[in-house]
Every structure is written in C-alpha cells, then in structure tokens.
Protein 1
Amino acid sequence: MKCHQCQTEMVRDCNVTVEGGMYGIKISKKRKGLFNKVSAKTKAAVCSSCGYVALYIDEYNDFRE
Ligand SMILES: [Zn+2]
C-alpha cells in the first residue's frame, strides 16, 4: 500500500479508535441473500514520510455485490 501523496510504502494495521473511548469504526452494508449484512473493522495505514492516513478494511471481498 503506497501513500497517495508521496508514494512511500505505508505502515498498515494501525488501529482506528475514537478519542476518549475504546471504540473503533465499523463499516457495514445490508445485502440481499443468506448473509444479509456484511461488516468490517476499519484499520488505518499511516505514511511515515508525510503523515498521510488512509482507512482500509481487510474484508473488502465481502462487500462485492
Ligand atoms: Zn506520504
């Protein structure tokens, strides 16, 4: 995963939490069918060169329609 700003390799697997709590951010989506809801915990990648932060999930395949 490369930084969008400066193309440096980003540091993945950083935790995303809400300040003042232990809560992370979850992405979810309703779907049709047997497994009618998908959700994923948001992670962050940080660029150690310019400070750019990108959010991503590992379970992106589950969101495919
Ligand atoms: Zn960068």
Protein 2
Amino acid sequence: MAVLPIVEVPDPRLKLISTPVEGVDDDTRALIADMFDTMYDANGIGLAAIQIGVPKRVLVMDLQEEEDEEGKPIRAPRVFINPEILDPADERSLYNEGCLSVPDQYAEVERPKRCRVKWLDEDGKAHEEAFEGLLAVCIQHEMDHLNGIVFLDHLSRLKRQMIMKKLDKQRRAAA
Ligand SMILES: [Zn+2]
C-alpha cells in the first residue's frame, strides 16, 4: 500500500480510455488499496485508477458524509470495478465539482440528477443500485475519468481556459 503521485491536467494520460478488469484478483485489490491511500491522503472523495496512472476501469469513493462524536468524518469506502451507468434521469442538477487532477479549482457542472449503476466489488461480486445526490454526481464524475473525460470538458472553452490559467499561476507560485 502506498500514497502515489496524482496525475494532473493537462497530462495526456487523463484522456485515455481505461480498459475493463478481466478478473478481480490480488493485483486488483493491491491497486484499490493504493487508490484509497492516495485518495485519503489528498482529502478527496473519489479517485479513478487513471489518476494514479493505471488505465483500468476501477474507481474508489468515500463521501464521508457522517461524523463521529468528535466531529471526525466516518469512513465509508466504496469500490466500483467495471462500473456502468444505466438509465440516467432526464432531470438534471448542478453541482460545484472539483477534482484531484485539477487541484483547488471548482466549477458548476450539470449532470443527470439520478442514475442506476452496475458494478463489481473487490470480491468480483456484481451489484446494481440507484444513486442520487452527491453519490450520483461523484460516480458520474469518476466514470468520466474512465472514458478520458475530466469535469473541465463539460465547461465552455472560455471557462476551461480561465481555470487552466489559474492553475498555471498557482503552480508557478508554488514552484
Ligand atoms: Zn476527478
């Protein structure tokens, strides 16, 4: 298990289409462990394998919406292998999205409000469930990564360029 560097825009790897996992095995589970370590270390709520440079259809998520008595978020890790989105709702909603591959930048993205999702878990068992709210936003955002799309691709060119400029500035200030 390890915290790995996160691939950031405009790295061309983020445009790759990830390939399905052929059989869920110990290598897959080791990848998942690295993904959780990396996501928690970066205070993210979702991560696709390509964000650590592995073009496989694997996502991890943890919305950490519940808190314990001390106000610390309670971990609720979820794994999605070969996920598929079914029946996206016509009704759409807006959410101010961010991404570990686009550090500290946020923008409103419109997506279907609800969807069903089909996936395998880390034991290779199949699941299907209806998602809404932040869970629906997050799974659709992460699914996009498997198809070579980042949330910036949903924005106007002007907005995208503005964010890339801000990122550049931020990186120069940190250098
Ligand atoms: Zn992302």
